[in-house]
Amino acid sequence: MSGSAVIGLGNPLMGDDGFGLVALARLRDEWTLEDVELADGGTWGMSLLPLIEDSDRLVLLDAIAAGGNPGDVVVLERDRLPIYITRKLSPHQIDLRDVLAAAEWRGNLPAETVAIGVEPRRVELSLELSPEVDRAVDAVVGLVIARLEQWGHRCSPRELAASCMR
Predict the structure, then answer these.
(1) What is the C-alpha to C-alpha distance for residues 150 and 105, in angstroms, rounded to an integer?
(2) Residue 150 to residue 164: CA distance in whole angstroms
């Protein structure tokens, strides 16, 4: 079984931009994931390169400004990721775009890479997600779990894992 990484991105001090970290925390708190590394990428930039390059499959969780309505779920497969183009993936996309471009240039961007997130309503100084974005967290977590299971990972809710141990 090859390893996968799920990286939550964003700035938790900037409202909806913190979506990726909220979704990552939900995965970490509520799921047991076999052979999956969960990483808080925050706005780390190039320091994410080793994790990305060492993964066989990659999920990026983020607020993604794709031109939709606030709270819309957005899924960008690898071929749609804006690695070499100027369309913004998120407010901190320059760092992420550069990291993905470096991994691609070195021939180490996982073939199975996907960005899953939501269209933000507001990216401004705030510790809370907007209501529309907050309501989308469960849907995005469900998409991540489905993708990990499709890739062959065993994913079980923590309640189920705890009850099986009794």
Answers:
(1) 27
(2) 23
Task: State both tokens at 34.
Answer: 């076999």
Residues 6 or more apart in contact with residue 61 via CB below 8 angstroms = 6, 7, 8, 9, 19, 20, 21, 23, 24, 115, 116, 117, 140, 144
**Helix spans in 85-127 (H):** 93-105
**Tokens coding 56:** 């066989």
Q: Model-level pTM?
A: 0.87
pLDDT, tens digit (0-9, with 9 covering 90-100), for 60-87: 999 998 889 999 999 999 988 865 333 4
Backbone angles phi, psi at 92, to 5 degrees: -110, 25
CATH code reported for the domain at 4-164 = 3.40.50.1450
CA 143/CA 108 separation, integer angstroms: 24
Is 51 within 8 Å of 7 (Cβ atoms)?
yes
pLDDT tens per residue, range 86-104:
344 455 444 677 888 889 9
